[in-house]
Amino acid sequence: MLIQHGLHNALKRGELAIHYQPKYALDQGNIVGAEALLRWFSPELGTVSPAEFIPIAEETGFIVDIGCWLIERVCQTMNHWRKQGAVLAPVAINISPIQFHRGNLYKTLSRAIADHAIDPALIQIELTEGVVMNRQQSTIELLHSIKSLGVAISIDDFGTGYSSLSYLRHLPIDEIKIDRSFIMEITDAGSLTDTRLTAIPLAVIDLAKNLNIKLVAEGVETEVQSNFLRENGCFIIQGYWFSKPVDEAAMLGFWRRA
Ligand code: G
Ligand code: G
Ligand code: MN
Ligand code: NA
């Protein structure tokens, strides 16, 4: 298979890059974090979307190697940014369920953090509901050990899994990210005529507030969405409206202005 074969070489040849998408606080008017996102620029295949190559890397298990590289690379980049005078905020790394269950995640994180002298409070991992929902002892222990490193845990794509909500009370979760499919439904026309479209974002805002968990709205693309979120008490947004994912150099520019 073309992608599968290409991926192995991609790591070796340095075709993988990491872009960063800022998280912006509407109330403070500054950047309060960023999410690391993989990019693959293949000479043979062109730009390949992670939506395409990550499922393949998960099937083959190669996602563990890619994930280790990414953690190491993010820490290295943060060290570089700091030396360039950046005032950093937490950087979030997406962790595949395969890496969570089969990779040596605790060791990979702790080593990268130590090697690059990163404040662990500046690292965050993003997991999907499917990962944290299962009640296996090994999952619970790994979450607690990652927390004990000082790394924060965020739930990505919140509201799209088949989750019971009880894990939010029992597990050391710091942040949830309302999935962009719910944010998309906030429109001038829609919200005025059909309050069912805003019911879920409003409920998640309440839930996060009452559980004292940080909340981020992802996929915010319009001023209408941004205003709606601010008026209803969700202040941290991520999405094309503030910024698309940008390369390392552009992200450094953001940090300097933060
Ligand atoms: O950046 P983009 O919208 O193209 O990403 C598509 C999908 O790939 C998203 O679901 C995103 O979470 C996932 N993704 C992007 N970067 C990473 C990564 O570094 N690790 C993992 N596991 N998934 C990623
Ligand atoms: O699954 P995850 O939430 O990690 O996916 C993040 C992906 O969403 C990134 O690949 C990023 O490119 C994409 N993304 C970020 N902001 C927006 C947005 O405002 N609109 C859309 N359509 N996609 C976005
Ligand atoms: Mn994410
Ligand atoms: Na998402």
From TrEMBL:
It comes from the Bacteria. Keywords: Phosphoprotein. Residues 1-258 form the EAL domain. The keyword Phosphoprotein applies. This is EAL domain-containing protein. It comes from Methylomonas subterranea.
